[in-house]
Specification:
Elements: E1 27-33, E2 39-45, E3 53-55, E4 62-65, H1 82-89, H2 92-107
Antiparallel strand pairs: 1-2, 1-4, 3-4
Length: about 110
């Protein structure tokens, strides 16, 4: 049984298929410029939504497209605090009742 193991080929994602009859999807190459002066390109499928920024592979800063497409401004949500999340679940009178109960427990009335 052990004699018939896969000899001569390693385990993993090796494919023994021939790529001659494969037609790749149409692609487009987009250039990006980093604030540090680095230029690099990335390849995307033509039908893909193209990003307006990309992280520079050399320094990690945010790079913009070199073809002049303006960066899209993302709408920032305000940070939700503990109080905001609590107010979503309880009303002010409910919170006042809970506070009174907890204060009574702490004061040793129960």
């Amino acid at each position: 049984m052990a004699d018939r193991s896969l000899r001569g080929s390693g385990l993993g994602a090796k494919s023994f298929e021939d790529e001659t009859s494969i037609e790749f999807a149409p692609r487009t190459e987009i250039g990006f410029d980093c604030p540090q002066g680095h230029h690099f390109t990335r390849t995307f499928a033509e039908e893909a939504e193209l990003p307006t920024s990309w992280e520079c592979p050399r320094c990690g800063q945010e790079s913009i497209r070199s073809d002049g497409v303006p960066m899209e401004v993302k709408e920032e949500k305000p940070a939700r605090t503990h109080w905001d999340m609590l107010r979503e679940r309880r009303s002010i009178p409910e919170l006042e009742d809970l506070l009174a109960e907890r204060l009574d427990l702490l004061r040793g009335k129960e």
